[in-house]
């Protein structure tokens, strides 16, 4: 297993703030739009039992039709697109803090997943995915023969 460690760069946030201030000084009515950064993805929780794992992902404002879920072996990949809200005619956007754009989240499940039994539901901006263990990867009791 490869572990990737990304170090926090305090200057990156300051540079982004400086860039936004420069844009604001040039045009005070300009709106700074946030898009997903490479290290910024929707948050998730994962819990598992003997036969099932559950992934819960925060995706407020994402239409379930704009989501794609794939399972391969023990890896679940969730991709989606958070679209910017359309403004009513005659309105001007003054703030834009919620990120928009494409995102992908990949998580390893602690067992092989039966993709035929996987199901997902989205309610109140939370996607919940139930993943079930394959029969082949289920723990088995092994009987010991006497010789």
**CATH architecture descriptor:** Sandwich
Q: Which class best fits the helix and strand makeup? A: mainly beta
Helix count, DSSP H or I runs of 4 or more residues: 1
CATH topology: Immunoglobulin-like
What proportion strand? 25-35%
Biggest β-sheet: strands ordered side by side in the sheet: 1-2-7-6
Strand tally is 7
Total domain units: 1
Mean pLDDT across residues: 82
The rounded Rg comes to 22 Å
Overall spatial form: elongated
Helix content: 10-25%
Describe the main β-sheet briefly. Answer: 4 strands, antiparallel
Please give the CATH class: Mainly Beta
Weakly predicted, low-confidence segments = none
Q: Note the gap between the termini.
A: 40 Å
Order of helices and strands: HEEEEEEE
What features would you describe in this structure?
With 147 residues, the chain is mainly beta. The protein has one helix at 10-26, and strands spanning 44-48, 52-58, 67-72, 75-82, 101-108, 119-123, 126-132. The two termini are 40 Å apart. The chain is elongated and about 85 Å long. It has a four-stranded antiparallel β-sheet with strand order 1-2-7-6, with no helix packed on it. Strands 3-4-5 form a three-stranded antiparallel β-sheet, with no helix packed on it. The mean pLDDT is 82. The protein has one domain (13-132): Immunoglobulin-like (Sandwich), CATH 2.60.40.790. The protein has one helix and seven strands.
Protein topology:
Layout: H1 10-26, E1 44-48, E2 52-58, E3 67-72, E4 75-82, E5 101-108, E6 119-123, E7 126-132
């Amino acid at each position: 297993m490869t572990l990737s460690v990304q170090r926090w760069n305090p200057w990156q946030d300051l540079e982004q703030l400086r860039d936004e201030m420069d844009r604001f000084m040039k045009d005070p009515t300009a709106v700074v739009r946030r898009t997903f950064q490479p290290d910024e993805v929707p948050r998730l929780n994962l819990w598992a039992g003997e036969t099932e794992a559950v992934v819960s992902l925060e995706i407020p404002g994402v239409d379930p039709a704009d989501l794609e879920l794939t399972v391969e072996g023990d890896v679940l990949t969730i991709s989606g697109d958070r679209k910017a809200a359309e403004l009513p005619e005659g309105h001007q956007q003054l703030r834009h803090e919620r990120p928009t754009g494409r995102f992908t989240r990949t998580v390893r499940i602690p067992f092989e997943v039966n993709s035929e039994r996987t199901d997902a539901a989205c309610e109140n901006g939370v996607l919940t995915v139930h993943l079930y263990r394959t029969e082949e990867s289920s723990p088995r009791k092994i009987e010991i023969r006497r010789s």
